[in-house]
Design a protein that fits this description.
The chain is of the alpha/beta class. The chain is built from eight helices and seven strands; from the N terminus they run βαααββββαββαααα. Strands 1, 2, 3, 4, 5, 6 and 7 form a seven-stranded mixed sheet that branches. Helix 1 packs antiparallel against helix 4 (about 100-115) and helix 1 crosses helix 5. The longest helix has 19 residues, at about 140-160.
């Protein structure tokens, strides 16, 4: 990996949620399932299995490959709706509420579409399966700049991997499928971590079996 490392669009949400989680997934190639990730995977499989369709004047393309040479991004958009006014990305989520993490990923998709299609993409939607509702996201100047900043941080993290970042938000660990691999409860307790690290380097007594 180097400074020209292409950033997966999915890594943006992972990094915003927790840089340690992002490193485990995209550097260590670590993955595990729990109830939440299984629901998300099954939900996305249903979206990915769908075909392009037209309803009225709206053309819907599912699982659309997207990229940006300017931002060094590639990935896939769950759904892109082509309205008379222009394209509109729609990101599917399993839960019932949204946060900044998903908005950053959606904004990155919009900027990819703008570069690919040479048209403005001012808005998109987050669709929540749990509540069957849409949340409209306006891609403001501030959100675009923040998204580009995060993309730069992700690229640095992927290009120059080192020790895993610290746990960002302990309150999020309970719902993370990678908590066992992350060992968040251990790394958050400095005294316990120091004791475990020390036990790895206890010298053998002379004459003991290796």
């Amino acid at each position: 990996m180097d400074d020209d490392q292409t950033v997966p669009v999915s890594a943006i949400e992972h990094y915003s949620y927790c840089p340690r989680q992002c490193a485990l997934i995209h550097v260590e190639q670590c993955w595990a399932e729990n109830l939440l990730t299984t629901r998300g995977r099954l939900g996305h499989e249903r979206v990915d299995a769908g075909h392009a369709s037209t309803e009225g004047t709206v053309r819907t393309v599912r699982s659309m490959i997207i990229w940006s040479d300017r931002l060094g991004l590639n990935g896939k958009a769950d759904v892109v709706e082509f309205h008379a006014s222009g394209p509109r990305p729609v990101e599917y989520k399993v839960g019932r509420k949204h946060g900044e993490h998903a908005e950053l990923q959606l904004c990155a998709q919009a900027m990819c579409l703008e570069e690919m299609l040479k048209v403005p993409v001012p808005e998109g939607d987050l669709f929540f399966r749990g509540s069957r509702t849409r949340h409209s996201v306006v891609f403001t100047y501030q959100l675009r700049r923040h998204t580009e900043d995060v993309i730069g941080e992700v690229r640095s993290a992927l290009s120059e991997p080192g020790p895993l970042p610290p746990v960002a938000a302990p309150e999020l660990c309970a719902n993370c499928s990678l908590d066992d691999a992350c060992m968040s409860s251990v790394v958050r307790d400095r005294h316990r971590l120091r004791g475990l690290q020390g036990s790895l380097f206890v010298p053998l007594e002379p004459g003991s079996d290796a």
